[in-house]
């Protein structure tokens, strides 16, 4: 990622010094830089690297999140001036970014956290960039970040979103949405593979068709490419060769943790994280299959049409984005960050992993009213009215036939709960008051702290 960002910066006309702790990697990177070599200054020590940069310096770190970032900051600090700027462009936990931002304000150098999305290709040719930190830092480097970012109709997909960890929080939620979007695609893949006995190639063709419609997105595009690719070694579909154990580096989990901490619902994202955790327990799943038999039951071909799966995905996707934007809104309130929601939707339209046609409509809907639940914006409310029946059918057919659809199911439950005024939480409040005298509000009177007659009944 770091090497590709450096090449992107060089290609946009900025001279850039580069350093990697493994010197041979810097040498081979420089040797392969071709005509961009003129704009690159390879260095072999941190001292040489710092000396090669014009003051006030701006340094981008692209190393694994956590201890490596702290270690790199500590190594750089004695070599830098107070008005120099360190930019952490990795997938940092935003609480770490808040901490590093606070520390930088007492002793310098200045600090900025930016989220970069788009994978290696995005880093090289135009990622989406979510920046947080002091406005003065954005004023120093914003023009470079905008130049290297992806463009949507010539508009840069890079923006300053707020102070301290605001950029990394938005990148984390981006990844949480990425997890849910990917999981829901995997779930409809499962219905087609195990329920409808479709081949990988057939499923790939369905995804390809969907990519021409409302679901047009990078993730649907790569899904049809993954489904349609054969293993060069065996000639079998790649999907039949890839082990069904999903990895994760932590950003999806951080999103779920953050939602729980902020008390905002992100159930589709939580289901996606839990699904990756379950997928990783292959040994336990083998024992489970031996004990109970595999869950999936083949469906009658007429039980579900692929159009219905497409509509279910549309509904699920709207809910998952509504939850993601709701989480960003809640964090913005908590930290007093500006967090321009329409701007966030706009910078996700190109360059990043969750780029999709729907983000255009989301940007418009959030511009109308950023604090409204996205599913209530007229455009998305109409889409949900058209598609929630399909979501219900897919979840029901899945449940009845052992085809797990946890993220779609979580999305449906959220939709049903959030459109129902009278929930079942009165029972929870009654239980809480019974065992702990926690008190409740009444439907027929103002005020709080009312109690039921339980003590009397149990004496
Ligand atoms: N891969 C992706 O698609 C994306 C990754 N990211 C984020 O970007 C960051 C980098 O990821 P990526 O490029 O994929 O990772 P890589 O593992 O490919 O590269 C990591 C880099 O960090 C260096 N490094 C590792 N540990 C240390 C350390 N303790 N001190 C100093 N340098 C260290 C490595 O040096 P050496 O070569 O010597 O090992 C290498 O240059 C991560 O935070 C990741 O989450 C963000 C968006 C997308
Ligand atoms: O940030 C990214 C894309 O936006 C990275 O690709 C990220 O590492 C993917 O997350 P995970 O490894 O947990 O699936």
TrEMBL record:
Binding site for substrate: 91, 117-119, 174-175, 179, 249, 276, 432, 438
One GO MF term attached to the UniProt entry: NADP binding
One GO term of the biological process aspect: pentose-phosphate shunt
Assembly description: Homodimer.
PANTHER family: 6-PHOSPHOGLUCONATE DEHYDROGENASE
Primary role: Catalyzes the oxidative decarboxylation of 6-phosphogluconate to ribulose 5-phosphate and CO(2), with concomitant reduction of NADP to NADPH.
Family classification: Belongs to the 6-phosphogluconate dehydrogenase family.
Protein name stated in the entry: 6-phosphogluconate dehydrogenase, decarboxylating
